[in-house]
Amino acid sequence: MRGNAAFRRLYLAQLLSQGGDWFLIVPLLGILLELSGGPFWGALALASDTILIAVCSLLASGIVDRVDRRKMLVTCDLASAACVALAFLVRTPQTVFIALLAVGGVAAAKAFFAPVATAAVATLVPRDALLSATVISGATWAVMLVVGSSLSALVTALVGPYWCFGIDLLSFLCSATLVASLRELAGPPDTQQTARESPLRQLRTTLRSAGQDRRISALIAAKPATALGNGILAIFPALATSVFAIGPAGVGILFAARGIGALLGPLIAGRLLRPALLRVILAIAMILFASGYALFPLAVWFPLAVCCVVFAHIGGAAAASVSTYGLQSITQASDRGRVLSTDLMVQTAAIGLSQLGVVTLASLVGNSNACVVTACGVLLYVAFWWRASRPLKRFSP
User: pTM of the prediction?
Assistant: First the structure.
C-alpha cells in the first residue's frame, strides 16, 4: 500500500465503489419494507442484485480479458452512478419496482467491475506480494461493509434515506476519477485469444480449463457453500423486528457485524494459509460460517446474535479469500479474468437462489427455523465438497 501507488489508487477506488453499495441497499431495504408492508420486495431487490451479477458475469467472462481495463472500470462506475439516481424515485407503493431497476443496474455494472478489479491486482503487484494484496483487496469489501452499513443506518436515522443515495452517487463518481488515473491498466491484456469468442464459448473454454485442472473446479465450487447461506441476509429486516425487536437500526448493526467478520476472515486466513493447508482451511471456514448462522436465531440476547453473525462471516470471508487467492495463483494471465468472472457467476447465482429460497422457506416455517435449516444445508454441501475437493491436497501455486 505504501510503495505501490497504482495498487493504492485501485484499493481506494474499490473502497469508494463498494462502500457506496451499502448507502443504496441498507436504506432501500427499509423503504421497501415500509412501502410494501413486508420483506418480499426487499428480498426481491437483494435477489435481483445477485442474480443479475450472475447473468452479467456470463457476458463479462467473454469481455474482461480483451478490453481496456481502465476504461471498463470507469464505465462501470459511471453506469452505477446513473442507476443509483433512479432510487430517488422510490417514494410510493406504486414505485417500488424502480428499486429493482436501481439495484439491478448497479449489479450489472458490478459484474464487470469486480472481476476486472480482481484480475488487475495480479497485474499491479509482484507475484510474491499477491497473497497480501489479495487479502487486502478482500478486506476492502469488508471494511466498507462495516463503514457503509453503519454510516448509512446513521444517516438514514438522522436525515432520511434519500441522502444516502446522494452519497452513493458521489462515491461512484470519485471512484471513476481515481480509476481514470491508472495508466498501468490501459490497453487490453489479451487481444488475440479471445477476440472472436462469444460469451458462451468463453464460458465453455473456462469450464474446459476447470475440467482439465480439477483444482480450479474445486476452488470455484468452494464459493457456493457460503453463498447458499447468504440468503439469510434477506430476512435480516424481519429478524431484527420480529425476533430482536430493534427495527431498522438493528438491520444496520447486523450488516456491520457481517462486515467485521468479513474483515477479520481474510486477515486470519492470510496468517494461517499454507499450500498444504488450503483445503483444510477452506473446510473449517465453511463450517464456521454454517455454525454461526445455525446459532444466530437461537440467541435471545441481541449482542450475542451479533457475535454469531461476526463468527459466521469470519468463516465466509476466509473461505472466499482463500478460494480467490488459489484461483489467481494457478490461472494464466490471459485466462484470469474469465475464470474469475465464472467464479463470480457461480457464487452470485447461488446467493440469488438462496435469497429467494430462504424467504419462501421463512413464509412456511418462520424466520428463525428458516435460518437454522439453511445453515444445516450449508453443512451438507461442505460434506459433499470435501469428498470432491481431493485434488486440492496437491495444491501448489
Answer: 0.69
Pick the CATH number of 5-180+199-394 from 3.40.50.2300, 1.20.1250.20, 1.10.1200.10, 2.60.120.280: 1.20.1250.20
Q: C-alpha angle 166/175/77, rounded to 5°?
A: 75
CA-closest candidate to residue 137, choices 301, 32, 270: 270
Q: Which residues contact 393 (CB under 8 A, 6 or more apart)?
A: 279
- Say if residue 109 is exposed, middle or buried (CB neighbours under 10 Å; 0-12, 13-18, 19+): buried
Q: Most distant CA pair in the chain: distance in Å? A: 59
Q: Give yes or no for a contact between 152 and 26, defined as CB atoms under 8 angstroms apart.
A: yes
Q: Between the CA of residue 88 and those of 8, 35, 38, 166, what are the distances in Å?
A: 32, 14, 21, 9
By the 8 A CB rule, do 179 and 54 touch?
no
33: cell is 419494507
Write down the domain spans for the chain: 5-180+199-394
The half-sphere exposure of 364 on its side-chain side, counting CA atoms within 13 A, is: 9
How many helices (H) and strands (E) in the chain?
A: 14, 0
Q: Give the integer Cα–Cα distance in Å for 153 and 168.
A: 13
For 260, the grid coordinates are 467485521
DSSP assignment letter at 234: G
Q: Do residues 45 and 103 touch, judged by C-beta distance below 8 A?
A: yes
Is pLDDT of 193 > 60? no
Give the integer Cα–Cα distance in Å for 72 and 80.
12
Please give the grid coordinates belonging to residue 321.
479469500
| Distance between CA atoms of residues 213 and 205, nearest Å | 12
What is the number of other CB atoms lying within 10 angstroms of the CB of residue 76?
26
- How many angstroms separate the Cα of 194 from the Cα of each of 62, 120, 186, 283, 340? 7, 18, 17, 35, 15
* Residue carrying the nine cell digits 489479451: 190
Cell of 279: 483445503
Cβ neighbours of 1 (radius 10 Å) = 11
More confident residue, 383 or 191: 383
Summarised one tens digit per residue, pLDDT across range 240-281 is: 776 676 766 677 788 788 888 888 888 888 888 888 889 999
